[in-house]
Fold this sequence. Notes:
Layout lengths: L3 H34 L19 H10 L10 E10 L8 E11 L3 E8 L5 E6 L2 E6 L3 E7 L2 H18 L10 E7 L2 E8 L2 E9 L5 E10 L8 E15 L2 E11 L7 E12 L8
Antiparallel strand pairs: 1-2, 1-13, 2-3, 3-4, 4-5, 5-6, 7-8, 8-9, 9-10, 10-11, 11-12, 12-13
Amino acid sequence: xxxxxxxxxxxxxxxxxxxxxxxxxxxxxxxxxxxxxxxxxxxxxxxxxxxxxxxxxxxxxxxxxxxxxxxxxxxxxxxxxxxxxxxxxxxxxxxxxxxxxxxxxxxxxxxxxxxxxxxxxxxxxxxxxxxxxxxxxxxxxxxxxxxxxxxxxxxxxxxxxxxxxxxxxxxxxxxxxxxxxxxxxxxxxxxxxxxxxxxxxxxxxxxxxxxxxxxxxxxxxxxxxxxxxxxxxxxxxxxxxxxxxxxxxxxxxxxxxxxxxxxxxxxxxxxxxxxxxxxxx
Length: 281
């Protein structure tokens, strides 16, 4: 009995510490979510094709497809999604069913809350400040972030996603520069503070974006070394949401456009909304 009592005391203390850490993570998730939600415009302007009238034709084609005339220009989007997420490699992808919700407020940030099914469930969140995941909802298996490498990589992600999920956030203006590459390819550069990200977009004849491609600051390579490397994906199954035409199916991965391309993210969106106040919690 003398051995058992210290064991249970240690177990109880460990459980309490893990529960406190999970509560802290939930609280910081919530604080960041609400900060981003408050960035939504209170009295937004409405879309007019004149806003992009001086841009190259394929850029105008994209915006006139993505945003219908008279739509309030809301840059903060909330997204619910299912689909699959890989925990493996290109040769052994180990896809897991996912359920996630996200707030996207480019260029200011995002929070992505994820739950993965499986024998050992995985859950957690990703943002510009952290990546934190745990098994069984309690035991930490990844706690990353808090440095410039992580922030730079995350910035690339949410800039690229804003092009197709919150196009009002990338209308031309301070820090947002568009240019044409050819009749079906456009390029945008979004800058904020120390970060700048350029993204190429393939545009179909009707204006829908079909592919995004960019060089992402990433350590998803055999050397586990941060460097610029290809990243991108495909967009499909467009639907209209509050005056926006948005893809409800997105597949993306590392080394896009090369023979090493690996789709680790297969999102099937179930809901997108542009709230006027604090949203999904």
